[in-house]
Predict the structure.
Amino acid sequence: MFTSEPVNLSPARALAINFVVGLSCVLGGLVINQTEINNGTLGLLLAFGSGTYLQLGASVSLPAAIDSNSDAHHITAVVVAFILACVAIGLILLDHGHCEAEGAGHAHR
């Protein structure tokens, strides 16, 4: 079900690329930390970030965890873990404070 093609990178080159990608996360954190952002922007950043994790989980990790040799118990455990992770991300998004801005939030007047 899930096959991965080798990319023929040496371990040193793969580590170097991984290091540069990791530095981009640090750079993004520094930029956001030094920039004044409002709750709307923060909500968008959280939504895009969680969407990235969900996409990776659904398209890469989930098919790799459930292969054609898995029994029903293993598949059930993987799906339950995936659903729990989705719920955890959703709870984090609910508590980021977006709806508490200026006291009224999204309430209609």
Residues 73 and 96 are 35 Å apart (CA to CA).
